[in-house]
Amino acid sequence: PASRLNLPYRGSVDVGVGVLAGFSLAYFITPMDQAVMQQMSGTATIPGSLKESARTLFKSPLQYTKSPQFFYVGGTYMGTYIAKNLTDTACLATNQSKEASAFYKFWLVFAANGGLSIFWKDPGLAKLFGKSAVAMPKSVYAAWAARDVIHMLGAAVAPDYCEQKFGWTKDQWRAAQLSFPLMVQTITTPFHLLGLDLYNNPSSTFNERLGRVRSNWVPSAGVRMLRMFAPWSLGLLICRDLRDFLLAENEPDGK
């Protein structure tokens, strides 16, 4: 029951788990983001970029941790997980319905992840690894906003909503949380590539742009599935299971 929740303790667990998960998973996510950015800008191939990142990571892990790309990615996912955890707690504490919980979860997590990704992480990475020195066009933000709306519905909202709506077991929820973020990449990847192409090739025609997006769709979708498995499949699963474990003794009836 909401009246039995220890909100200060839950809040500290929500923040602590979010920071730990975001920092840890950034070691896997950052090379993937960098590889797609460099592939679309033409500065490196995906295998070449991943190989160089792995070399730097294993040779100088502390140097890699201090890199701007790690800072962008780690900061974004720390903020995302904290927002997701705190939203779960707020919805539970105020006895929200499953529909209301899905609504708040979508908008609050989208505001955190979308805001950090669209206006901070992705522009920062594009400037680090792109070939264009121009200011970020508004069309790029529009493409990435569409990407994140679709992604958030499929990866962060749908598994929890389906669990509540259809009375799924914990194992069924786990299967959905592991698979939904991957499946939605087939839809979101073209929007991601379109944004990168709009930035790197601002004077291209529509057909030229469409051709590059189409040719990079399959390899980039594969990389993005691998890349999304860490933060959205494993990350959200670990966040929930770790939160449940830490809250079990303090709140026997809490989730």
Describe this structure in words.
The termini are close together. The chain is globular and about 60 Å long. The protein has nine helices and no strands. The mean pLDDT is 90. By secondary structure, the protein is an all-alpha fold. Helix 1 packs antiparallel against helix 4 (68-93) and helix 8 crosses helix 9 (206-248).
Q: What brief labels describe this structure?
A:
single chain; 255 residues; mainly alpha; 9 helices; 84% helix
Per DSSP, the total helix count is 9
Distance between the termini: 10 Å
How large is the share of residues in beta strands?
Answer: under 5%
What is the helical fraction, as a range of percent?
over 70%
Q: Strand pairing plus helix content: what structural class?
A: mainly alpha
What is the number of E strands? 0
Question: What's the mean pLDDT score?
Answer: 90
- The whole-angstrom Rg is 19 Å
Question: What is the compact description of this entry?
Answer:
The chain has 255 residues and is mainly alpha-helical.
Topology of helices and strands:
Layout: H1 7-41, H2 46-59, H3 61-65, H4 68-93, H5 98-129, H6 138-166, H7 170-183, H8 185-200, H9 206-248
